[in-house]
């Protein structure tokens, strides 16, 4: 399986840290977020190749990848103008080749067990079109909160609402089937957002599976501070 790490965002809610550092390279315990992601995806051989899209301070991401021990398995896709999360997937169809694709936001902190996540996708209900990683959040107003039925299928999705109906959150890690990739391809315009324009169309057909290890969205300085306090490096 191939993986696409979304890493082009500006990270405005993490300023002033992101004034000089791209969000995916913000360090936790001395290691950039992107380093944790690459280890999780490539260490066990579950993922063959990784594509990373870039935009803001892209030279720093390029330099990081050039120095990475995983560099032979990584490709980069620079966006002069942001395309949106699904727009980036659409623009890189030659990479995913309309085969199942693991997609993740590289500006979160994770201990993703990639082999287990891929296995959960393969064992999903037959009518599920994509698999979504979930986690329990202590900051539900800053997350996409889910309502899930007894088959593990998402029936409700509440994106950063004032009164979220729980704490089960979208971890922004997905495996998209060719059906979802085709839907993205057919969308008009270059800028397409995955979470607001594509995923809601598959409500009732999204299989939710819980994260086995630590996972936190690093949307704000507060989230970053909590990660530093809670997270112990070492991997799953």
Can you summarize this structure?
With 236 residues, this protein is an alpha/beta fold.
Order of helices and strands: EEEHEHEHHEEHEEEEHHEEH
Rg, nearest Å: 17 Å
Number of domains: 1
- Would you identify the CATH architecture? Alpha-Beta Complex
**Number of helical elements:** 8
Instruction: Determine the N-to-C terminus distance.
Output: 20 Å
Dominant shape: globular
Low-confidence stretches: none
CATH topology: Spore Coat Polysaccharide Biosynthesis Protein SpsA, Chain A
Largest sheet: 7 strands, mixed
Percent strand: 25-35%
Q: Name the average pLDDT.
A: 91
Pairing-aware structural class of the strands and helices?
alpha/beta
Return the CATH class: Alpha Beta
Number of strands: 13
Percent range of helical residues: 25-40%
Architecture overview:
This protein is an alpha/beta fold. The mean pLDDT is 91. The protein has one domain: Spore Coat Polysaccharide Biosynthesis Protein SpsA, Chain A, CATH 3.90.550.10. The longest helix is centred in the N-terminal third of the chain and has 10 residues. It has a seven-stranded mixed sheet, with helices on both faces.
Name some characteristics of this structure.
single chain; 27% helix; 236 residues; Spore Coat Polysaccharide Biosynthesis Protein SpsA, Chain A; globular; 8 helices; 27% strand; alpha/beta; seven-stranded mixed β-sheet
């Amino acid at each position: 399986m191939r993986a696409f790490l979304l890493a082009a965002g500006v990270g405005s809610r993490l300023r002033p840290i992101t004034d000089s550092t791209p969000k995916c390279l913000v360090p936790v315990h001395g290691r950039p977020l992107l380093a944790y992601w690459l280890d999780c995806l490539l260490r066990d051989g579950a993922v063959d190749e990784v594509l990373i899209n870039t935009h803001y301070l892209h030279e720093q991401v390029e330099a990081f990848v050039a120095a990475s021990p995983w560099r032979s398995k990584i490709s980069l896709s620079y966006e002069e103008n942001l395309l949106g999360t699904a727009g980036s997937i659409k623009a890189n169809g030659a990479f995913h080749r309309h085969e199942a694709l693991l997609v993740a936001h590289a500006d979160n902190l994770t201990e993703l067990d990639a082999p287990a996540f891929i296995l959960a996708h393969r064992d999903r209900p037959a009518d599920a079109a994509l698999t979504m990683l979930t986690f329990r959040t202590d900051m539900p107003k800053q997350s996409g909160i889910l309502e899930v039925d007894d088959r593990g299928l998402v029936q409700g999705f509440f994106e950063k609402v004032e009164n979220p109906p729980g704490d089960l959150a979208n971890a922004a890690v997905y495996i998209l089937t060719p059906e979802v990739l085709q839907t993205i391809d057919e969308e008009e315009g270059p800028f397409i957002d995955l979470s607001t324009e594509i995923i809601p169309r598959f409500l009732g057909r999204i299989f939710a599976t819980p994260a086995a290890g630590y996972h936190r969205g690093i949307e704000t300085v507060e989230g970053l501070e909590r990660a530093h306090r809670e997270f112990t490096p070492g991997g799953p």
